[in-house]
Amino acid sequence: MTSALEELQKDLEEVKVLLEKSTRKRVRDALTAEKAKIETEVRNKMQQKAQEKAEPGDSDKPAPVPAGYTVKISNYGWDQSEKFVKIYITLTGVHQVPLENVQVHFTERSFDLLVKNLNGKSYSMIVNNLLKPISVEGSSKKVKTDTVLILCRKKAENTRWDYLTQVEKECKEKEKPSYDAEADPSEGLMNVLKKIYEDGDDDMKRTINKAWVESREKQAKGDTEF
Q1: Above 90 in pLDDT, residue 110?
Q2: Going from the N-terminus, what domains does the chain have, and what CATH number goes with each?
Q3: Which of 87, 101, 154, 184 could form an SS bridge with 97, CB 3.0 to 4.6 Å?
């Protein structure tokens, strides 16, 4: 019976083959994002196997948070006020851990959350490429019963965010019906990749975000290489 690691390695090889054969820039960006995601999953599986083979004596040592045992947060809700974009993450029992175990780091266009030692696990969430700039100094977190509330202070107050990230905006706009009867031949694949993004976990969204940002940076520099 084929193991999960072997299946991932086969998927990775196939994506590499497709990447070598592709010539369309958008397709290459999407495949590059998928390749990065699978490589991350392969590394995680290999680390897990290495931990399982650790010497028996290691299990006698106190380890409140097993190395590498981090749960990626993919479910959240968000809304906004005139001054803040508010992200709600439900984590049962989070109000019972020390406040210093709940850490949030902000940049002008991103934030990442790390919750340490909650029921023997760590939890993380990274959101890159926010729709609009935020104030790092004015942003903060609040821990409530079973909930972490992240408050991103808008740099431009009284402006509405229709999406949380630029990638979500791009995906939604591309879903609108096209007036052109002759669609791009690669559009079908792009629709599939957009569906993968919407249904994907935090790793998938983060890797596609990264590919999107790199693509935009290259375009800004006038790079036309496919």
Answers
A1: yes
A2: 4-48+189-217 (4.10.860.10), 64-154 (2.60.40.790)
A3: 101
